[in-house]
């Protein structure tokens, strides 16, 4: 399984997800929002436009980690990724 993980190296939820995915043998493409200005801008665009973030926009939640699967599915659920 190949998955892109968008998050932060200082976010406990992101670190947990990365560890779980690695334990399940996933091929991980990690996008660290705090280390790449262009990646942050792309993520903010995703967060502001994707229907998945409807309930998160306007709140204090960041919506990370975010997972993008090989088929283009975008989810915030690690359980969905591990299925």
Radius of gyration equals: 12 Å
Main beta sheet strand tally, sense and closure:
4 strands, mixed
* Assembly form of the protein: single chain
Biggest sheet: strand arrangement: 2-1-3-4
The CATH architecture = 3-Layer(aba) Sandwich
Low-confidence stretches: none
Nearest-integer average pLDDT:
95
CATH fold-level assignment: Glutaredoxin
Query: What's the CATH class, please?
Result: Alpha Beta
End-to-end distance: 10 Å
Residues in helix, %: 25-40%
Q: Please state the overall shape, judged from the principal axes of the Cα atoms.
A: globular
**Count of individual beta strands:** 4
Report on the structure:
The protein is of the alpha+beta class and 83 residues long. The protein has a single domain, classed as Glutaredoxin. It contains three helices and four strands, in the order βαβαββα. The protein has helices at 12-23, 37-49, 78-82; strands spanning 2-7, 27-32, 66-69, 74-75. Strands 2-1-3-4 form a four-stranded mixed β-sheet. A hairpin with a 4-residue loop joins strand 3 and strand 4. The protein is globular and about 35 Å long.
Question: Could you give a quick summary of the protein structure above?
Answer:
The protein is α+β, with helices and mostly antiparallel strands and 83 residues long. The protein has helices at residues 12-23, 37-49, 78-82; strands at 2-7, 27-32, 66-69, 74-75.
Features:
alpha+beta; four-stranded mixed sheet; 36% helix; Glutaredoxin; 83 residues
């Amino acid at each position: 399984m190949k998955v892109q993980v968008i998050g932060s190296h200082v976010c406990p939820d992101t670190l947990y997800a990365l560890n779980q995915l690695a334990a399940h043998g996933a091929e991980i493409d990690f996008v660290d929002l705090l280390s790449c200005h262009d990646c942050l801008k792309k993520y903010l665009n995703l967060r502001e436009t994707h229907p998945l973030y409807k309930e998160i926009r306007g709140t204090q939640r960041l919506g990370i980690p975010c997972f993008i699967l090989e088929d283009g599915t975008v989810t915030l659920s690690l359980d969905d990724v591990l299925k």
